[in-house]
Specification:
Elements (H helix, E strand, L loop, with lengths): L1 E2 L3 H9 L3 E3 L3 E7 L12 E6 L7 H18 L7 E7 L8 H21 L1
Parallel strand pairs: 1-4, 4-5
Antiparallel strand pairs: 2-3, 3-5
Helix pairs in contact: 2-3
Length: 118
């Protein structure tokens, strides 16, 4: 899974205001259609937003590592050409890995269902 690298790419995803959420994670997403110009082959791209309200640098980095591992593990459950931003709620700092895993898997499946309905 590729990464969203600059502020402009993050803002493009967040402006669409398409999101699904759970107790500890909010997932913002954009599914690109063939008419949406991306300029490249279809790819899934991931961005992470973990604010200081989650905890100190050590805690934030732990949450980001968990998000990256789980996103890689369940990326096959996302549409082929989409951008997602995983945003951690403050409770994510104290959530177990298994809890985050269940939430992210459910959120990825919800994105797939919603993209198929559109």
């Amino acid at each position: 899974m590729e990464r969203l690298k600059n502020h402009r790419e993050f803002v493009a995803v967040l402006k669409r205001r398409r999101r699904v959420s759970d107790a500890d994670v909010v997932l913002h997403y954009v599914v690109h259609t063939p008419s949406t110009p991306t300029g490249a082959a279809p790819a899934r791209r991931l961005g992470l937003a973990v604010s200081k309200s989650v905890g100190n640098a050590v805690v934030r980095n732990t949450v980001k590592r968990r998000f990256r591992v789980l996103a890689h593990r369940y990326e096959h459950e996302l549409p082929a050409d989409c951008d997602i931003v995983l945003r951690a709620k403050p409770r994510a700092a104290h959530a177990s890995f298994q809890s985050l895993e269940a939430q992210i898997q459910a959120l990825f499946r919800a994105v797939m269902r919603k993209s198929e309905q559109s």
